[in-house]
Amino acid sequence: MSYLTAHAGQIAQLTLQHLGLVLGGLAVAIAIAAPFGILAARVPRAGTPIFSVTGILYVIPSLALLAVAVQYLGLGPAPVIFVLAAYAQFILVRNIATALANVPAAQLDAARGLGMSPSQQFWRVELPQAAPVLIGGLRLATVALIAIATLGGYVGAGGLGDDIFLGLQRKYIDQTLAGSIPAAALAVIVDALFRLLERSSRARLE
After folding, report:
1. Residue 5 has what pLDDT?
2. Which pLDDT value is given to residue 1?
3. Which of 12, 140, 164, 174 is the most buried (most CB within 10 A)?
């Protein structure tokens, strides 16, 4: 643990880089997953091929996918963000589709009866009703991406993976722990924050 205390400033910087990778990957993932999740909820027949593709992406070994991404995107954050966005699809697309499909039909009927347009129904009824489930999916995806983002240490993307892999190469356990412990702590903190948001969104619906 001496390495952790002696390099606190550096580890704090790596933690911020790590969080940046995760947030970047999550932002790209949401932008891709949202339309596919909505389509799967609206057109159930479309769900099967969409879920199949995201499932295939999820079972590809992360290092193998990263190696392919590096061939096209080079070293640095870009291939890591690509891998994070790809892996998050399996969780997010299914979560979005499930959340929207489970919105009570009575709520939608009432919205239509009030003369709401499809867009108004989505933003005023479906999204608030689906919020707890959506937040739960974001929680799972974010925690998973925090772990996968450690691969950034292999390709010069920064983040806590730098200390983890350098420590492994040098057989220096303190340096490996200096990357592993903050990554685990970050996952625990993020999980707790999302759980609070999830409870708050459920309370608003009661």
Report:
1. 82
2. 60
3. 164
